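User: Can you predict the 3D structure for this chain?
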Amino acid sequence: QRSELAHELASALWRAGRHGDMVELLERTIEQVPAGSTEQAALWLALANAHEQGTQDGASACEAFEQAAAVVPSDPRVVSGLERLLRKSERWDELRAHLARSAAASDPASAVLLHCQRGSLEIEQFQDLDAARACFEAALSLDADCPTARQGLERIALALGDDDALLDAFEREAAITAD
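Assistant: Here is the predicted structure, written as structure tokens:
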């Protein structure tokens, strides 16, 4: 009940444009609920959104998303919110770790997407083709029909000039499209 009341009051403060007061209320409420509970995770998520959209404090929003991720690492709102802020602030190493943790904690369908996102990140920001290959292969181990993962492996084969890997990628593509 305390959390519900805090959410209602926070919503009223948000509508009134009193974002700073909303942040203070959420911070106080977080301290009063059981640590590591889903209730606390929901409050961390609300605080992250208040910082990001209300006070425009990206660093504090990131911290709140990280706190929520510690409790509910596979929650899509937490995963995408933290990813968005880490990309925006170009914190690539942290994004790499976040995508790996989230993929490990997520259901297979979500993990496929996260592995592909990390594979692309490995190519674009780190030029680490081996790590990218591992990400795309992890995605394909969960969904053999994933076009993003197949295209990622094709990109790697082209970049390396690896004719055998390129041929394998195209054969995999042909086998799937022939079915």
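Residues 19 and 54 are 5 Å apart (CA to CA). The chain is about 85% helix and 0% strand.
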